[in-house]
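Duplicate of earlier report; Pyridoxal phosphate homeostasis protein input re-posted below.
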Amino acid sequence: MNQTVLANNLQRVSDQVSKYSGHLLAVTKFVDKDVTRALFELGVREMAENRPEPFLKKLEELSDIKDQITWHFIGHLQTRQVKKVIHNIDYLHSLDRVSLAKEIQKRAICPLKCFLQVNVSGEASKGGFQPDQVLDVINNLANYDKIIIVGLMTMAPIDATDYELHDYFKELRLLQEKIESLELKQAPCHELSMGMSRDYLIALEEGASYVRIGTALYQD
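Output:
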């Protein structure tokens, strides 16, 4: 990929994100090790992957810099893949079911920072908990000392209008604020992971602290 294009795209998106004091999470799942390294050389230190095997391979290829990167896993994580992944990531954005929480509790050595995935749109094709389940789920995780719920995550429908996007993201923010106000030890819940290349500006307007950006960084 053209380095100048990458640098310009990164600067443009970074400038927009910084206006809202958000975190730019560079999604590197579809780019090779060279582009990932180029992002690192441009100053990016927070990166996201969504498939275990390609992620672990990339860690081997970037062995000289991997420990200087904060790694986020944003994809669906099967329980059988937990032991391979959790020791190599700093954040999990896709805690979407209780069975996954149980496996993390079983396999983790240190507490893992997790975002509870919430299906605010109610789409059958998307995983995650329904908004009215979230408080009960968090209470049920109270004794899971290897899991810290640092925030909530959602993915908006690809065909949502701007008006609908504002509604979805606002709903998640209000839920996050409600949980944060409870001051739960296992769920400080001060972060919001929402917004991707097509809708991150609206997500930032609605309070996103992490936006997951891929396409906007790599398009010509």
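The chain has nine helices and eight strands.

Merging into the original ticket.
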